[in-house]
Amino acid sequence: MGHARSRTLVVTALMVGAFLASPPIGAALANGPFDPGVRGGSPGAGGSLPGLDGDEQAFFAAGKTVFQEIDSVSGTIPGEDGVGLGPRFNMNGCAGCHAFPAVGGSSPLVNPQVALATLDGARNTVPSFITARGPVREARFVKNPDGSPDGGVHDLFVITGRKDAAGCDIAQPDFATQLKNNNVIFRIPTPTFGAGLVENVSDASLQAALSAQRRLASSLGVSGAFNHSGNDGTITRFGWKAQNKSLLIFAGEAYNVEQGVTNEAFPNEREDDPDCQFNGLPEDGTNLNPTEIGASPASAYSSDVVNFAAFMRLSAAPMPARATASTANGFKVFQNIGCQACHIVSQTTAKSRYAGQSAQTFQPFSDFAVHAMGALGDGVSQGSANGQEFRSAPLWGVGQRIFFLHDGRTSNIIAAIEAHSSNGSEANGVIRNFNALSPGNQQDLINFLRSL
Amino acid sequence: MSERFFRFLLLALLLARSSAPAAHSGERVPDPEDGVATAHAYVNPYFGFTYPFAAGWKEGIAGPPPSADGYYVLGAVDSRDGVSGNLLIVAQDMFFSREPVGDAMALAKATRRTMAALPGMQIDREPTAVSVADRAFGRVDYSGVGLYRTMLATEIRCHLVSFVATANAPAVLDQAVQSLARLSAPPETSASASERSSFPVCIKDYATGDNVVRRVEPRAEPPYFTRIAVRIIVGKDGRVQHTHVIKASTEQRQSIMEAVAQWQLKPLEVDGAAVAVEAGLVFEFKPAGH
Fold it and tell me: Which residue of A has its CA nearest to B97?
């Protein structure tokens, strides 16, 4: 591990410690409940699934190491061994965005995108929507200049000026004009803990879980539907709009879109300026002759993307805190007022090739369906999810999340709850129920959520 | 606003629509989501009912658009303080429900089973058949975590229309439930042929098999592998007078409406006379070669 990286980690740890020791981040609502803030203590996630055999655990550990690799254009900068960064990018490593409360999580407290803008000589301007204490974000433009739908990611930064990108001279997008035109939406990283369990749930099981909630849902104004693969019609389940089919696709797309690293799933550069093409394609691929095998031959021979997918697939679900009288009542309130109409408590895996993972019932608190969310909609369609719809965000691990909603607009979980209610939202009935609760029941519900 | 005013308003809407949807004349045929709220009432021309709000209650924020399975949030009403109580008006198209129930009482019983299984929920009133506005409703009451709830459901045009009242005090719940006594809705049985014929006959699978004289397939449009539910009204001449694509992309909607407008069906005859019929269709588009 490079000295610069270890120093950064120490600083980050100190800042997080100071943050957690400070008074709760959430302001109390007048005469109402308060958000006690990010749950302290050790991270409730980041390890491997229980029950894996030795080879699988080794694959997880090696995959995690690859997940933390820092990319550069050439792979020749000390501490930045990965090859293929850019020409356009949002981050130079998976763990930069998927960082909190542990590697594989979501946005950390200190946004690494600020320092990244000028790393290694790059000459980027930090966009106004990226701040030191704000969430890691990607930006998407809703419409093309001709008015047709866009929805694609427009990377924040370029490699222009980097010491390993001589001759490349491209510009960042004009975010200021797009912001002025209200044509930009943001997405923050989704946590990846337990993703393999989600991947292994059969379509029939997802359908059955959704059907079991229909009667409750329909008494509250909730419906929902699954997003489907345009290739084979099966249910897709990863991403803010449940647009991605598998962890391999998820990893490959993110590697190319967020870091600019072409790979065997997404083998073509998104920026085709000829002066900015430095590597043979795809930049990430199967290792035909690895220099080092280590404890996991599977990892050594596999591409980065396969390693990323393995890390996510074999990662354990977030562990909730031990129940208290308040959180136990809060769980009862959660179910009684209808939160579970979308945030379904349990799902069950199918038969799995991984040791100890078949027919496992786990608690993601999501139906993995998409729902109309009114004013929370971002205007971007993905698959069969339209611009007003979002996947029910899995709530496992929410107790140790800093930023909420698809764009990380708030760190207050109560504000996130209230934002579910607006013209056109399926959640209005449930939020009405929440608002009608006694302050005590409201607080117990908040405490329950922060215990997840 | 007097009850007489709302009855007049509803009758005017129904007479304007008449029994043969005038799609060719350009007159707009209402769909379930076309209800409107005034300052004092919710009026739905498709279902033919008017619900005057309880005193001091007001229109709440709008619900979502119709779902792919034909589930509608028709309206919401909030108590005076905006917090202590609310009344949700929803409808489920019985043609497309993923978990169909036979009738309003069956819905009340199914709701009872669901709510009784929730932690902390108790059933305050077992499913009961009641009469409201000369219509048969199924009713069930339940409460938990300090919230009191009543669901009243009835069947109109092959939809299960439910009024779900919620309040954090029994007195507020009573206020909402009592207000339903002023509901104006089409009677279920009527000696008057004109009232009975104000709605088309609803038959889920009428537009299938030997009833179809000419069928034109819509061109496939993305997103693929999504289930698209459609209601059509077939006139006395067997032509499709009205098409309601419940949820679809713009391209899918246009494709289906262009195709279905060319369909020809056998007219439905009741007691020797041709009548309008409302039927259901389901489309699922797939990519070429699939």
Answer: A214
